[in-house]
Amino acid sequence: MVITSKKHIKTQSTYNFESSKSNVATSQMRNALNKLTDSMLDDPAISKDEKFRFENEIDSFFTLFRRYLVEKSSTANTLDWDKIKSPNNETEVINYDRIVSTKDENVSNLNKLAVLKLNGGLGTSMGCVGPKSVIEVREGNTFLDLAVRQIEHLNTKYDSDVPLILMNSFNTDNDTQHLIKKYSGNRIEIKSFNQSRFPRVYKDTLLPVPESYDSGLECWYPPGHGDLFESLYNSGKLDELIEQGKEILFISNCDNLGATVDLKILNHLIESGAEYLMELTDKTRADVKGGTLINYDGEIRLLEVAQVPKEHIDEFKNIRKFKNFNTNNLWVNLKAIKRLVENDDLKMEIIPNKKFIKRNNQEIEVLQLETACGAAIRYFKGGHGIVVPRSRFLPVKTCSDLLMIKSDLFYLEHGTLKIDNERFGPNPLIKLGSHFKKVNDFQSRIQHIPKLLELDHLTITGNVFLGKNVTLKGTVIIVCSDGEKIDIPNGSILENVVITGNLQILEH
């Protein structure tokens, strides 16, 4: 009893100490944010609307920061691994093939739909400048071009009026506004709004990086796609959509070329009365870290790898136990979003994202406090998952992905990529090394896309160049040694081969 008492006192003392530190940090942050706001309010060149928006964003950030400190100093929000259960396959996660709709062909529901693309990211990871959505991906079309073509085809075919909404960030807004002008003659209404701009925080002092409203871009960050709901509400676009008779918002990442409007899912959501639907798909070796739906204390929740205790990471990656993952294709009821935002009910898990910025030629560690819109499923009535075919998850995150979607594995139809009928089995696993990381380097080394229809696995590393009309089949591994070069000649057919060293002429 004495030992238990001492342990209890020690734990309580530690908590009080952490709580005290939290109060100090909260007070210091509030004072620093007040100075930030004052620097903007005193500037006569800034419009009232811009001042109002900035004040709202700072208040939202402070709320998030305060919640982060409270949760950090408490164990109340820590997941108990033993309480995690597989979701109910009858109600919480169902298979796409088992969706029962009395109106699978009810196209009138399209008039209740709006499509939103998450368009806040830059193409920097692939060596590009500007919004990622304007990278050319297929036959001269960008991600944005393909999204517009898909929805325009829907509107023309079914005489519907599905609008396209773009959630931009302060990094992508100016370029996007300029680019969407070219669609003014298309049969599609394009709306856009900006997600919040939050101040980065020094990891050591927990104080904001920006010193004034107009501090450089490196001082700020867009706070993840969990910010969607509040930003959509604050922009006025949510009320606009509801007034236009829209009921459902289909959300997806701008770089997921498989995220197209599916009438079967739309009709199922409306008929079921659910407020939220998440598309899941089966995991492969490339997706073991993807978040998945679980049942926790009787409610459905999204479990992300960042929430998993270290001792259970391998178990989380086991595709037999956690069979599918979140594609971030989400279908959400607009009036439900309005209700939850107005009631301040959305308290998604906070993801501390570590970054580095340069100060006086030194790298300083900073924090970005982010949230994910998939984690909001627990707050919506009737929220559940649908396990969809892998074809609905076709993201382009790297040049390895770019090679696949440019190849003969797919063909383009009304802006939608479709798998060639001759293809057998899942998509190939493609790994291109650091020499292919940037789009310009990729294009200089692979000027002509090889035929991949019968490819299972491709690995290329080092100083490698592919010629014209190259065909790759089965498992192909090409590894070039440092300081060497490998040229794959025109017309080569490589099937189940390993090529290493230095090669400039290849018999075929």
Automatic annotation (TrEMBL):
Keywords, alphabetical: Nucleotidyltransferase, Transferase
Origin superkingdom: Eukaryota
InterPro entries: Nucleotide-diphossugar_trans (IPR029044), UDPGP_fam (IPR002618), UDPGP_trans (IPR016267)
SUPFAM superfamilies to which the protein is assigned, alphabetical: Nucleotide-diphospho-sugar transferases
Keyword check for Transferase: yes
EC number(s) given by UniProt: 2.7.7.9
Residues that, per the record, bind UTP: K132, Q195, G224, D255, K397
GO MF annotation, one: UTP:glucose-1-phosphate uridylyltransferase activity
Positions with a binding annotation for substrate: H225
UniProt function note: Plays a central role as a glucosyl donor in cellular metabolic pathways.
Annotated protein name in UniProt: UTP--glucose-1-phosphate uridylyltransferase
Species of provenance: Henningerozyma blattae (strain ATCC 34711 / CBS 6284 / DSM 70876 / NBRC 10599 / NRRL Y-10934 / UCD 77-7) (Yeast)
Designated gene of the protein: TBLA0I01540
